[in-house]
Amino acid sequence: MPIRVSIVEDLAEIREGLVDLVRSDRELLMIGSFEDAESAVQKLPDLQADIVVMDINLPGMSGIDCIRNIKEKCPGTQFMMFTVYENDDKVLQAMQAGATGKEIAERLYIGHGTVRQHLHNIYEKLQVHNRTEAVNKYFDRS
């Protein structure tokens, strides 16, 4: 059974390139693509994707806020942030919102080492050792 993938990316050229990449893999099934978070919030719960590739910096509602809005409506969906940000704070916000996606990161040839490096930087700055400690400290719950 193929992995059901949806993409949320405002830049048409990038969105279309990702769609083509997903469609070229027999183990993946492209079930929807959206140019903004508002459309994704309306339609993703009905699609029930296995994986959603989400741009962080969308016009209007951000990708992080989009995940926060639909995570409970899509409990079986993993969210992977697709971004060029070099900002650890954005990575931490995405992580806190529920973004995951190790499997799809490998399939889309996105450096998992880059994600690990951001997490290492976050943990070091916050003086913590894992994701739970980082999120708790970020929100002053420790």
Please describe the structure with a list of short key phrases separated by commas or semicolons:
4-stranded parallel beta sheet, 7 helices, 142 residues
Structure overview:
- With 142 residues, this protein is an alpha/beta fold.
- Helices cover 49% and strands 16% of the residues.
- The protein has seven helices and four strands.
- A four-stranded parallel beta sheet has the order 2-1-3-4, sandwiched between helices.
- Helix 2 packs parallel to helix 3 and helix 4 packs across helix 6 (112-126).
- It is globular.
- The chain starts with a strand and ends with a helix.
Quick summary:
The chain is an alpha/beta fold and 142 residues long. It has helices at 12-23, 37-47, 63-70, 88-97, 102-107, 112-126, 131-138; strands at residues 3-8, 28-34, 51-55, 78-82.
Q: Please give the CATH architecture.
A: 3-Layer(aba) Sandwich
What integer is the average pLDDT?
78
Count of helical regions = 7
Q: Which regions contain 5 or more consecutive residues with pLDDT less than 50?
A: 103-108
Strand order of the largest sheet: 2-1-3-4
Radius of gyration: 15 Å
Strand content: 15-25%
Order of helices and strands: EHEHEHEHHHH
- Count the domains: 1
Structural class call reads alpha/beta
Q: Main β-sheet: number of strands, strand sense, barrel status?
A: 4 strands, parallel
Shape: globular
Look at the structure and give the CATH class: Alpha Beta
At CATH level 3, the topology is: Rossmann fold
